[in-house]
Write a structure and sequence with these properties.
234 residues, alpha+beta, 5-stranded mixed beta sheet, 34% helix
Length: 234
């Protein structure tokens, strides 16, 4: 689907021929608005093959620059189209970088408020038992920080080694080929104009949640309605 800011690529449309629980997963890495900013990336993972021991597949992707409210609507529409998929938004950019760069305030709450009106299957970070007892507020999205980033990157490296998913995007393959750990131990794209790691981040988050934080998909059998008996009247 053509878009001046960046086309929506669809390799497989939603499949509703069989009812599958926990089938689709949509992950969003939030970028900037300008052409030189990081890309906003929406990735869709189909987990249906996992029912039979197969590999999850990337079935759709949008990689573009856009305003954050429009990104929210696009992500929600795509998630709704793919069978009301679990929608995961990477919140590190929204909670830290964009507050400093764009002075937009707390973008995490803003973007989730926009989405909440039209999509109710949103990913929330797990809360400790202690904080649950304190009625701590729900923390929406996946927060990438010094604790979680090494975890999801190590898992991504294992997924690459073991070939545990089917990748469709040339952009993602290109970023994976160049992704590195610098002298200070930080993961990211190599320095230079046009170098980005947004595809890698979205993929790492998606695969972590796909394999480590979601229940396995399963086929939901539809009960057949009993055939009514015909009653003849004399």
């Amino acid at each position: 689907i053509e878009n001046p800011q960046g086309d929506l690529m669809v390799w497989a449309k939603p499949d509703r021929s069989v009812k599958i629980s926990n089938r689709y997963l949509v992950v969003v890495d939030v970028g900037g608005r300008s052409k030189k900013a990081d890309w906003s990336v929406i990735r869709v993972i189909d987990r249906f093959p996992m029912v039979y021991g197969g590999k999850p597949v990337i079935v759709a992707e949008q990689r573009y620059h856009t305003d954050h409210d429009l990104l929210a609507y696009d992500a929600a529409r795509i998630a709704k189209w793919y069978d009301n998929a679990l929608l995961v938004i990477e919140s590190n950019t929204l909670e830290t970088q964009d507050q400093e760069r764009d002075t937009d305030g707390n973008m995490t709450e803003y973007i989730h408020d926009v989405i909440a009106d039209i999509h109710d299957n949103l990913y929330a970070r797990k809360t400790s038992a202690e904080k649950i007892g304190e009625s701590a507020p729900t923390k929406w999205g996946f927060h990438t920080n010094t604790s979680t980033k090494p975890m999801i990157i190590a898992h991504l490296a294992a997924c690459i080694r073991d070939k545990t998913w089917v990748e469709k995007s040339e952009y993602c393959c290109a970023e994976l080929a160049l992704y590195q750990k610098d002298e200070k131990g930080r993961f990211g794209a190599p320095p230079g104009e046009g170098m980005h790691d947004d595809e890698v981040t979205a993929t790492a988050i998606g695969l972590w949640i796909c394999f480590c934080d979601m229940e396995l998909p399963r086929v939901i059998k539809q009960e057949k309605k009993p055939k009514g008996s015909r009653i003849s009247s004399n």
